[in-house]
Amino acid sequence: MPHIERIETRKRGFFGMLFWWMFLAFNALMGLWMFAGIKGASQQYQATTDAASHVGTAIGGSIAIGILLWIWVFGDIILGLLVLLSRGKRITIEQTVN
C-alpha cells in the first residue's frame, strides 16, 4: 500500500553559510590554540628545576587554559546562535513510497 513520505530540509543562504564556516573555523582555531597552550605550559614546566617555578607554571597554565575554555564557550554560544538563526527556509519534499 503506497504512502506519502515527507522530508523537511533547509537551504542556507549566503550569510547562513558564512556563519557556518565561521563556526567551524573558530572551533578549529580554538582547538589548535588549546593544544599549543597546553604544549607550551608543559614544556615550560619541564624546563624549570625548582619547586616554586613548577608551582607557578602549573598555576599560570591552569589559569590560561581556563581563560581559553571560557573564550571557546562564549564564542561557540554566540556563533552557534547565529548559525541556528540563519538556517534558511524550511523546504518540504513529498514522495510517494510503495
Question: What does this molecule look like?
Answer:
By secondary structure, the protein is α+β, with helices and mostly antiparallel strands. The chain has one domain. It is built from 2 helices and 2 strands. Strands 1-2 form a two-stranded antiparallel ribbon. Helix 1 packs antiparallel against helix 2. It is elongated, with a radius of gyration of 23 Å. The mean pLDDT is 91.
Fold blueprint:
Blueprint: E1 3-11, H1 14-47, H2 51-85, E2 89-97
Antiparallel strand pairs: 1-2
Which keywords apply here?
single chain; alpha+beta; about 100 residues; about 20% strand; elongated
Strand arrangement within the widest β-sheet reads: 1-2
Output the helix-strand order.
EHHE
Runs with pLDDT <50, length 5+? none
In DSSP terms (H or I, runs of 4 or more residues), the helix count works out at 2
Alpha-carbon Rg, integer: 23 Å
Class per helix and strand makeup: alpha+beta
Q: Could you give a short description of this structure?
A:
By secondary structure, the protein is α+β, with helices and mostly antiparallel strands.
